[in-house]
Structure formats: C-alpha cells, structure tokens
Amino acid sequence: MVKSFTFLKKKAGLTQEEFLRYWKEKHGPLAARVVPGLRKYIQYHPVPGFESEIDGIVELWWDNPESHRSFLTWRQSEEAKILREDEEKFIDTSQMVRFLGEEYIIVDDEAKASH
Fold it and tell me: What was the pLDDT predicted at 109?
C-alpha cells in the first residue's frame, strides 16, 4: 500500500470556510466517484486557531506505485476533465505539491493500548 499526499492552497478570493465546504461537500464526493483504483480518500482540514502555509491536505491510498502512476496518466485523459475543471473552482492548482510515500510506523499508541 502506498499513499499520496497533496498539499493544497485555496483559490484567491475564497474564504477558508468556502474552500473547505466546497472541498468536503462537492469535490470530495466527485473524486470518490470518478478516480479509478482509489482505495481510500482522506481530507485533512486545518484545526481552527493554528496558522499554516497550506489550506488542506488530501491523502489517497493506492495498492502500489503502479496504480498511482495509472492515476496520474488518467488525470491527463478526457475522462478526468471533470475532476480537473472542478479543482480549478476552488484550488490554486499552480501551488499544488504532491508526495508519494510508504508508511513506516514508529509509534502506534492504539496497538500499545490493546495489549
């Protein structure tokens, strides 16, 4: 299992509340419906009162690096146009930063609590 993280900045002119509401209520369900090979989709919204240079993080789970590469190829397709156009409504896509990684758990408090 590999995970991709995309760091997002809201489009100029939107409030934080407008950005987060659109992302959660409109874009999230759209992505869940149309993205092929997606195993899990998680949105991270900022905790109120804590300043950040980014407005949100999306975490996507993939079976392997190849399924992520297939997604990136799909993103350039006509079929994915609906997703790209929707992103332009609320994300400053020029500032999107992607990261693909494997998880190495160092501390898992839940596992400790169950023993």
Answer: 86
Compute the distance between CA of residue 58 and CA of residue 99 in angstroms, rounded to an integer: 10
How many CB atoms lie under 10 A from the CB of residue 45?
A: 13
Query: Residues with Cβ < 8 Å from 41, sequence gap 6 or more?
Result: 28, 31, 32, 35, 58, 59, 60, 61
Measured distance CA(90)–CA(13) in Å, rounded: 9
Sheet bearing 56-62, strands edge to edge:
40-44, 56-62, 2-8, 97-101
pTM for the predicted model, two decimal places? 0.88
Please write the tens of the pLDDT for every residue from 16-39: 999 999 999 999 999 999 999 999
Structure tokens at 102: 């494997």
Q: Strand 2-8 and strand 56-62: pairing?
A: antiparallel
Q: How many residues does the chain have?
A: 115
Q: Which domains does the chain have, with CATH numbers?
A: 2-113 (3.30.70.100)
